[in-house]
Design brief:
By secondary structure, this protein is an alpha/beta fold. The chain has 2 domains: about 180 residues, Aspartate Aminotransferase, domain 1, CATH 3.90.1150; about 250 residues, Type I PLP-dependent aspartate aminotransferase-like (Major domain) (Aspartate Aminotransferase, domain 2, 3-Layer(aba) Sandwich). The protein has 17 helices and 16 strands. The strands form 6 sheets. It has a 5-stranded mixed β-sheet, sandwiched between helices. Strands 9-14-11 form a 3-stranded antiparallel β-sheet. A two-stranded parallel sheet has the order 1-10. Helix 1 packs antiparallel against helix 14 and helix 3 runs parallel beside helix 11. The termini are far apart. The structure holds pyridoxal-5'-phosphate (PLP). Pyridoxal-5'-phosphate binds next to helix 4 and helix 5.
Length: about 475
């Protein structure tokens, strides 16, 4: 029998989780008006809101924190960090930033002008916002399978290369300042991009003289999927795979809050000296001098250590296996999820699970509320609350194409028993799914309304809501 894939670490320092009762959680959820962003983290038992900056650092990283060199210019920690990035990613010019979006802002402000078009497999929301804020158009070009939750495909994060050729032909290469590939494709369900697809996109970019950039946030997880699913790479080390992947690109942006295994940090890297010099002028203006970029020396040191640890085979094997384990548990119960599970998260098709609720009754947000009530689990809606909007003239609400709920798994934080508990909570919820009541939005502040919107249950006080609370009148 195959054995359990155990966590490849022992626990040296623990952070208590405060247990709560269902009655307490009802009070907290009502105060938060059914919005998980308005909950206090200490009132949450298992926090699956995001995998960004929520990972646990290793003993080695904490030791790095003590070794941080806090010199304003030319700190030793910067040189160690920059050398690590050159080794793993192969780019010569490395600019540290406080997180991924700062790297994005500097890159797009330097490269794009109004009227330009930036194709990506799928833009992450901050990436899209920065492309649009300089007046350019952010275009998502995933393969058709990437848009279908139930479709099985080993590399659902791939870019549609025919669509890429078509858009370059339509607008002309001069109006495409760069092409981006997000690995793994976060907004597309954490799905990987194959090396074959990176090569094909690279070839199209070369043919037209367009630079290719990688949004590298989850590059290590993507490299593990390449090793597992692309026969040519079976048995190759994640580091070798990463080296080849980035060799096809001209540069990358990185949020080290993901596969850098740190709580804060990021960078922008590339091989073009003139471009790097223009970018560093912006960096100095808004982030900090080129050898710290808005971070403390200790952060650079922890990032240098974390970037290496993220490529460890035992770590990656456990990481991807534990996400797949949760996906399998939910599938066994009958919960419809985006297939196959991604690297960092499992996405539930709340529209299908709560088929009795219309998109304007916010099935995803209702499920998020029930998960918290039932088990103290915090998740996030990725559907009409996040991507819909109310037309200011007609008052009509535009709905999202899919009503998803994301369970993002922080790195090295929870054990298998925590994940089993999540499965058990879903079992109970799934059994009474038809009695889960929809929500009404009471208040919103566009844009990015999902962070602060307030809700209440439809049918407040009706037998339906009592059923949903699991209480007898
Ligand atoms: C998190 C993320 C970003 C932005 O990084 P921040 O550190 O949150 O600013 C960009 N792209 C992707 C794919 C991400 O997941």
């Amino acid at each position: 029998m195959p054995r359990s894939i155990i966590e490849p670490f022992r626990i040296k320092s623990v952070e208590p989780i405060r247990m709560t009762t269902r009655e307490e959680r009802e009070g907290y959820l009502n105060e938060a008006a059914f919005n998980p962003f308005l909950l206090r983290a200490e009132d949450v038992l298992i926090d699956l809101l995001t995998d960004s900056g929520t990972g646990a650092m290793s003993a080695d990283q904490w030791a790095s924190i003590m070794r941080g060199d806090e010199s304003y210019a030319g700190a030793r920690s910067f040189y160690r960090f920059a050398e690590t990035v050159r080794e793993i990613f192969g780019f010569q010019h490395v600019l540290p930033t406080h997180q991924g979006r700062a790297a994005e802002r500097i890159l797009f402000t330097t490269l794009c002008k109004p009227g330009d078009v930036v194709p990506n497999n799928t833009h992450f929301d901050t990436t899209r916002a920065h492309v649009e804020s300089v007046g350019a158009r952010a275009l998502d070009l995933p393969i058709p399978e990437g848009r279908l939750p139930a479709a099985q495909h080993p590399f659902k994060g791939n870019m549609d290369t025919d669509a890429l050729r078509a858009i370059i032909a339509e607008v002309g290469a001069a109006r495409v300042p760069l092409v981006m590939l997000t690995v793994t494709n976060n907004s597309g369900g954490g799905q990987p991009v194959s090396m074959a697809n990176v090569r094909a996109v690279h070839a199209i970019c070369r043919e037209h003289g367009i630079p290719l950039y990688i949004d590298a946030c989850r590059y290590a997880e993507n490299c593990w999927f390449i090793r597992e699913r692309e026969p040519e790479f079976a048995g190759r080390s994640p580091r070798e795979i990463a080296r080849e992947l980035f060799s096809y690109a001209d540069g990358c942006t990185m949020s080290a809050k993901k596969d850098g295994l740190v709580n804060i940090g990021g960078f922008l890297a590339g091989n073009d000296a003139a471009l790097a010099s223009a970018e560093s002028r912006l960096l100095i203006l808004t982030e900090g001098f080129t050898t710290y970029g808005g971070l403390a020396g200790r952060d650079l040191e922890a990032m240098a250590t974390g970037l290496g640890e993220a490529l460890d085979e035992d770590y990656l094997n456990y990481r991807i296996a534990s996400t797949a384990y949760l996906g399998r548990r939910l599938t066994e119960i009958g919960v419809p999820i985006v297939q196959p599970p991604g690297g960092h998260a499992v996405y539930i098709d709340a529209g299908a699970m709560l088929a009795h609720l219309a998109p304007r009754e916010y099935p995803g947000q209702a499920l998020v509320g029930e998960l918290y009530l039932e088990g103290g689990i915090r998740a996030v809606e990725i559907g009409t609350v996040m991507f819909g909007s109310t037309d200011p003239l007609s008052g009509e609400e535009r709905t999202a194409p899919l009503e998803l709920v994301r369970l993002a798994i922080p790195r090295r934080v929870y054990t298998q028993s925590h994940i089993d508990y999540v499965g058990e909570v879903f079992e109970d919820l799934y059994r009474r799914r038809e009695r889960i009541v929809g929500l009404k939005m009471l208040w919103q502040a566009p844009p990015l309304r999902h962070f602060t919107a307030r809700f209440e249950r439809l049918h407040q006080g009706s037998p339906l809501s009592e059923g949903a609370l699991g209480r007898k009148p």
